[in-house]
Design brief:
Layout: H1 3-32, H2 42-74, H3 91-119, E1 127-134, E2 137-141, E3 147-148, E4 151-154, E5 159-165, E6 170-173, E7 180-183, E8 189-193, E9 199-205, E10 217-223, H4 225-245
Parallel strand pairs: 1-5, 4-10
Antiparallel strand pairs: 1-2, 2-3, 5-8, 6-7, 6-9, 9-10
Helix pairs in contact: 1-2, 2-3
Length: about 250
């Protein structure tokens, strides 16, 4: 078989194997690394970005491993004594493997910027809840002035967590909402989201903040808007009675 036809056959075989391996690895990666249940409107944007990255990782893995394994099996020397042609380089290949990764980086940079803009967008009708993080607990101040160690929020309401840390860096993260933001001493930071599923979740500190970092948790409840109003009114009455009794 002429050398040109043989080389073409090898590239076709490798190309098919790369496609098959990419699909297999993409399915495996997205299967063994499932994301938590999505419970905020921002989650869809973040999840899509994760899925795209997983498929890119699968393709890069296939590209490297298929070429390497195929070369080891098909072009092994065995008992032959002849040597292959000495190749100094290939300008076209060098251009391709420089330009294509550059294009991919630019595309993913654009996707990342768009994703960041989407999840940090500040709508006009957002509700502001002040969050304070400290070793090793959370405190939440609601629009009516009441404070609580439990985070209760209304479903389908745009929320802005206005956050401060009193000691060291902490990090606000509810996995089901996807978005995450650090609390930095001396700086007010914000994280925005719109919970769209009623239920109970757990707020975690996602930044190692000391010996008891792992217990820095808070109960989170997403409730109907009517239940939220009733709950905050009840908190206002209870805290008013506590103040009056002192």
């Amino acid at each position: 078989m002429p050398e040109s036809e043989s080389n073409k056959r090898h590239f076709i075989i490798v190309g098919v194997l790369v496609v098959i391996t990419t699909i297999a690895m993409g399915i495996i990666l997205n299967g063994v690394l499932p994301l938590p249940v999505a419970a905020a409107t921002q989650a869809a944007t973040v999840d899509w970005l994760f899925v795209v990255h997983m498929w890119l990782i699968a393709f890069l893995f296939a590209l490297v491993m298929v070429f390497m394994v195929y070369s080891m099996v098909v072009f092994r020397r065995g008992k032959r004594q002849d040597e292959g042609d000495h190749v100094e380089g290939n300008t076209m290949i060098e251009i391709v493997w420089t330009v294509i990764p550059l294009i991919v980086v630019v595309i993913f940079s654009y996707i990342g910027i768009q994703t960041l803009a989407t999840v940090t967008n500040a709508p006009k009708d957002e509700m502001v809840i002040k969050v304070q993080g400290f070793q090793w607990a959370w405190s939440f101040q609601y629009p009516n002035g009441t404070t609580n160690a439990e985070l209760v929020v209304p479903v389908d309401q745009n929320l802005d967590m206005e956050m401060n840390a009193t000691d060291v860096i902490h990090s606000f993260w509810v996995p089901q909402w996807r978005v995450k933001q650090d609390l930095v001493p001396g700086i007010t930071t914000h994280v925005r989201f719109t919970p769209d599923k009623i239920g109970e979740y757990t707020l975690e500190c996602n930044q190692v903040c000391g010996l008891s970092h792992t217990i820095m948790l808070a109960k989170v409840r997403v409730v109907s808007k009517e239940e939220f109003v009733a709950w905050t009114d009840q908190q206002l009455v209870e805290q008013g009675q506590q103040t009056a009794s002192k």
